[in-house]
Amino acid sequence: MSPSSRQRPRPKGRSTSTSSRRSLYVIAGVVAVVLLALGVALVAGSGGDDDTATDTTSDATGSGGGDAPAVPDDTPATVEGTPLPPLPSGGSDPATGTAMPTLSGTTLDGEAITIPEPGRPTMILFLAHWCPHCQAEVPVVQQWVDDGGLPDGVDLATVSTAVDSRRPNYPPAEWLDDEGWTAPVLVDGTNAAAEAAGLTGFPFFVAVDGEGNVVGRTSGELTAEGLTAIA
Questions:
Q1: Are 197 and 84 in contact (CB under 8 A)?
Q2: Environment class of 191 (CB within 10 Å of its CB; exposed 0-12, middle 13-18, buried 19+)
Q3: CB 127 within 8 A of CB 116
Q4: Do 90 and 167 form a contact (C-beta atoms < 8 A)?
Q5: Phi and psi dihedrals of 139, rounded to 5?
Q6: Which of 9, 111, 198, 199 lies 20 to 30 Å (CA to CA) from residue 99?
Q7: pTM score
Q8: Residue 84's closest CA among 33, 120, 126?
Q9: What percentage of the chain reaches a pLDDT higher than 70?
């Protein structure tokens, strides 16, 4: 066989180099896919953490709908004027015709409030979250309001008092929010407003005319007809 017809020697290392490069390309592609997948997972995980944080904040407000604010239960109310005598168990009410002390402070919504507002006839309802009679009365009053029972020009104001975190149905903000309560609620953290009204039981109503004088007081559950009579 002539030298020209012999098979030329194959250059050493070509096959090995090509194979190595191909292997490197494959490995690089796998790494890129893994990193991309990890990036997507991290983004998705970050979004879930944000949602969880939002839900936790909503729960911390104590509101079924996330709207009830975290106003401290010991927020005091201030009283201006002469406190009313306690409501007697029978006979005439000595507070009738006298000036209702002005109650002021902060609502469950964190707003400033004054009860009664000057020149505004007002029904004031004092509530305790743990009182079963209050729990029964709140939906009755709210339904009465929803049905148009509250006359035009007459305000309905609420005072949350005798708050106790160790007793049932706490906190009052969550309870009233769940009931769909629409009247403003003064936080009476030291029970000063209740004492000034001469409260003797729950629920407790005080009716005040446009001149700021007491028209009448009553304690206990009322029907829609009873509410209309007072209004």
A1: yes
A2: middle
A3: no
A4: no
A5: -65, -30
A6: 111
A7: 0.71
A8: 126
A9: 70
**For the residues 195-202, what does the mean pLDDT come to?**
98
Cα 45 to Cα 125: distance, rounded to the nearest angstrom: 48
- Residue 6, pLDDT score: 43
Q: How far apart are CA 227 and CA 207, in angstroms?
A: 10
Both tokens of 28, joined, read: 């690089």
CA 194 – CA 175 distance, rounded (Å): 20
Residues 148 and 224: beta-carbon distance below 8 Å: no
What 33-42 contacts at long range (C-beta under 8 Å, 24+ apart), as own/partner pairs, is none
Mean of the per-residue pLDDT values for the chain? 79
Encoded amino acid at 114, one letter: T
Residue 115 · residue 159 · CB < 8 Å: yes
In the structure, what pLDDT confidence band is assigned to residue 71 with cuts at 50, 70 and 90?
confident
CA distances from 183 to 28, 142, 147 (A): 67, 9, 14
Give the separation between CA 147 and CA 145, rounded to whole angstroms. 5
Q: Has residue 54 got a pLDDT over 80? A: no
- DSSP annotation of 107 reads B
Q: Return d(Cα 56, Cα 121) in angstroms, integer.
A: 41
- What pLDDT score does 70 carry? 67
Within 8 A by CB and 6+ apart from 146, the residues are none
Q: Are 220 and 210 in contact (CB under 8 A)?
A: no
Residues, the chain: 231
Say what the pLDDT of residue 131 is: 98
Least confident of 51-55, 74-78, 103-107, 115-119: 51-55
